[in-house]
Amino acid sequence: MIDVQAAIAANPALGRVARAEETVWINPLYLPVEMTDGLCQLVVPDAAIDDAEARLARFASFIRRRFPETEPTGGLIESPLEDIPRMQQALEREYHCTIPGRLMLKMDSHLAIAGSVKARGGIYEVLKHAEDLAVAAGKLSLTDDYARLDSEEMRAFFRQYTVQVGSTGNLGISIGIMSAALGFRVKVHMSAEAKQWKKDLLRSHGVEVLEYSGDYSKAVAEGRANSEQDPMSYFVDDEKSVDLFLGYAVAARRLKKQLDDRGIVVDAEHPLIVYLPTGVGGAPGGITYGLKRLFKNNVHCFLVEPTQCPSVLLGMATRQYEKANVRDFGLSGKTHADGLACASPSSFVTRVLGNLVSGDFTVADANLYNYLRLLDSSEGKRIEPSSCAAFAGPRGLLTLPGSRDYCAAHDLTEQVLNNSVQIAWATGGRLVPAEIWDQYLATVLD
Ligand SMILES: *Cc1c(COP(=O)(O)O)cnc(C)c1O
């Protein structure tokens, strides 16, 4: 059991978190990467990220053939990086804040196939599982053209196997669509927060959707138990999967190329500051890890979680990891940010990120819709409410005392910040149906 009062006494930021205020927690265990290098190489070596990148390249010909929308990227699932200067000005005007540097949007909200950041980790893990099975059965070799996986014979082979996952929605969509495309049977165990349109979309792909009244941890536990009973079933475990993490980590190399193509240099004088909406921690964890390996001390990664559901923050701050639950701090875990509604965090990510993440901003649900409208009106871009959490970062960085002190402590002077690139990582949106956008745009909370 966590001693909440002692935790709050030791760190006043946790008092604000427990009162569900919008705030920032700065990671007291953040270290220069030189001091984490040995451990990182041991736990998730750079070679494992190379291997994940190579695997995605092997599957590109299959993906391109099966999902023609990926034709422009040659079968790679990658999203645009865009300047959003009008949003930057709109945020400054609306919230009387200063946002230095160049504000950009990494649009994983518009990733092909799954329409969310889950297209990275979720799809990667399904591909890896398919490759492992097919190679072991002598039906595929690593040097083959993987386009041949798009055949009746291979679909019949994969049809013997089941893939299962617990999901608040988007992970189920990425796993469900790719598993079904390969031929697997798929079961997605959905938590109570999952939106109806996400369940409908999955069923339209032939996915079996099981619904539970409990929260996300319950859906994961049910899925895990169900899968363990079936030797032909594989469970994608969002609370501890290293393969998911690797799929996400590849994002960093892709981002570097996009920055290079624009002539954007990242160094001590021109740092990168990244804000990632966070649920159980897998997606932002893998991306942060990849970014820190590449850009070292010149990238500063902040997570963002709902004020009622900051589970990764609490898992790291209390060092109770997956044992932390937002309800221990008197928070409900309920949030309109369905993709971030995980009351307990990933065991793997809260440990791996312990010295790498700079901090964690919290965001009130009402602001998710305010940011959603502001991005729509200023830039004509639409991203789902969970995704909009990212904007709490650039808004808060120089407004909240905690992050201001972080900047001062890490040589992020006014001049350096003016030369920085700040990236709001948009994590979902493309598959939202038109009538749901109307609802989102009209939602005004207290
Ligand atoms: C899943 C999700 C996240 C966060 O990913 P985790 O791995 O749960 O931390 C963020 N935004 C959206 C839209 C998501 O679906």
From TrEMBL:
Belongs to the serine/threonine dehydratase family. DsdA subfamily. The gene is dsdA. Its cofactor is pyridoxal 5'-phosphate. The modification N6-(pyridoxal phosphate)lysine is found at K118. It catalyses: D-serine = pyruvate + NH4(+). Its EC number is 4.3.1.18. GO terms for molecular function: D-serine ammonia-lyase activity. HAMAP family: D_Ser_dehydrat. Pfam families: PALP. This is Probable D-serine dehydratase. Gene3D superfamilies: 3.40.50.1100. The lineage of its organism: Bacteria, Bacillati, Bacillota, Clostridia, Eubacteriales. Residues 79-394 form the Tryptophan synthase beta chain-like PALP domain.
